[in-house]
Design brief:
With 93 residues, the chain is mainly α. It has 2 domains: 57 residues; 31 residues, no CATH class. It is built from 3 helices and no strands. Helix 1 runs antiparallel to helix 3 and helix 2 packs antiparallel against helix 3. It is rod-shaped and about 55 Å long.
């Protein structure tokens, strides 16, 4: 479960970095040398890193049952909780 927590924290940090990248893109857009495509690079990189960590979190396998940890196919379970969607193993263990 340590790996899941590691990917989860990295995903939250990469999501938080998207907002400064948006600000940086807006600030660089006013400078003529960085207008256009070069101003988009930090934003695109942050979004790509976030998408990678999100995929790692969503495809993480439960060590107990082997199912997808963040996915639940039962209607009464939260699909993105701190417990396995199939067997209920807690991520805090």
């Amino acid at each position: 479960m340590r790996a899941f927590r590691k990917w989860n924290k990295a995903g939250m940090i990469s999501f938080a970095l998207i907002f400064p990248a948006i600000f940086l893109r807006g600030a660089l857009d006013h400078v003529a040398a960085f207008a256009g495509l070069p101003a988009m690079v930090p934003l695109v990189v942050c979004i790509a890193v976030f998408a990678y960590f999100l995929a790692r979190i969503l495809l993480f396998r439960c060590p107990r049952c082997g199912g997808l940890f963040s996915m639940s196919f039962r209607p009464y379970n939260k699909p993105t909780g701190r417990n396995c969607g199939q067997c209920g193993l807690s991520a805090d263990v």
